[in-house]
Amino acid sequence: MRAGLSIPLVRTILAKVRLVSKLCRKSTNFQREMSVAVDVEEAGAAVRDGRERIPAAKLVSRLIVDCPTRWGSTLAMVRRFLHVGPAVPSALSAYYHYTALSRGKVRVECPNRHELAALSEMVDFLKLVEYASTSIGAETIPTSPMEETLYWYVRQEGAPSSGDSDALSALKGTVLRDMHTRREAERRGGPNPDWFGIRVAAVLLNPFYKFSSFGNEVSTAAIARATAFAIIRWMMAKDPAAGAEDAPGLVGDVGAPSVKRRRTFEGRMRSFCAPEGAAAAGAKASGAGGAGAGRARPFGAGSLATRTLEQEWGAYLALPVDPNSDVPVLDWWRDHERFFPRVALGARYLLAIPATSVTSERVFSKAGRTIFNLRARMTGPNAEKFIVLHDEMTRRRRVERAQAARE
After folding, report:
1. How many helices (H) and strands (E) does the chain have?
2. Would you list the DSSP string of 76-102?
3. Tens digits of pLDDT across the chain (407 residues)
């Protein structure tokens, strides 16, 4: 993303946004003129959209300057600027301002109408990547399969179209080329030559992503299958008891009444990987898409010892899964481990691999906010209790919000 935001066409527009935001935060006079201009624009927009007016002082005070090393802050800066962008020209004309630069003074320019439209388009693309970044750093879902799946999803959803502005086309092209270059470098040989195979094998061992076509790359699909089998056999060698029990028949059950669910980015990813018609078939088989999602009978009952790994793998791939289900992946495997014990060994191994270090970095941030100079006498066990308690309270609030959204 930093490569895309640094191209000249995009960098020029962002430089204008930064200058206006910086001026608004440093100049009391300009901030006053901005409040007057924004108040007029907001009054008209509220009447046009049929909503309540937002105080102009609140909109103006929210303008920020981004951090160069955090592209997410650039997205936040642009999103806030778009709320007041149309009012900037009148504020600048009322308060003719010059800002000091190296060996001279230049007039502060604001984005024109076409550049504001380009910024609005870029925000839609940046939000797509932001959702992808947030999902990859999530703590509640296995993120290792998402790395490869997100590559194909972003390439499809963010593909340049004929209606894109020049700035948006340049941004999309640069980002997608950089993604492709990084993936090819990893595929051809990174620090760990086995990592690419592990990355794509994790996709197949996620039941909601197992139908992914890997962009119709036959070689990638072959690598994913071969690596998955190698990991499963390696785990079987470590656990000889796997596959010694009988396989119970998969009996269809009646799920709970269907409920309205909030559309999440994880759900969009599942629908992207699911074959056509899978959502309807999975919903019919699982009722509400609960823990019994897709419990059709993909194979006959009998001893697992009489089935080969290939047969068990085929049965796992043949099992229909509802992409609209809100069941976490690890819970799905906990319910279906008895049906696919050997494949579950590989899933247990691969789905535990995080794609990023976001989770541990968040723990360090929580620790930094918990242990500071005013708590110098706090012991290590007490600090640990504070951090764990804060994490548990955060998780509960997240679950309560999700339940409220479903209701």
Report:
1. 18, 4
2. HHHHHHHHHGGGHHHHHHHS--EEEET
3. 888 999 999 999 999 999 888 888 888 888 888 888 889 888 888 888 888 888 888 888 888 898 878 888 899 999 999 988 888 888 877 665 554 545 555 566 788 888 999 999 999 999 888 888 877 776 667 777 888 888 888 888 888 888 888 999 999 999 999 999 988 888 887 667 778 888 899 899 989 888 888 888 898 999 999 999 999 998 888 876 655 444 444 433 333 344 445 567 777 878 888 876 655 454 454 443 333 344 434 444 445 557 788 989 999 999 888 888 878 888 889 889 888 989 998 988 888 776 666 667 777 777 887 887 888 788 888 888 888 888 788 778 877 776 776 66
The token duo for 39 is 């108040």
Report residue 254 as tokens. Answer: 């009646």
Report field, pTM of the whole predicted structure over 0.90: no
CA distance 94 to 35: 12
Distances (CA, A) of 141 to 66, 316, 355, 384: 30, 20, 11, 24
The rounded distance, in Å, linking the Cα atoms of 360 and 356 is: 9
Residue type (1 letter), 50: G
Closest to 125 in 3D by CA, of 155, 102, 91: 155
Structural domain boundaries of the chain?
2-111, 214-350, 358-406
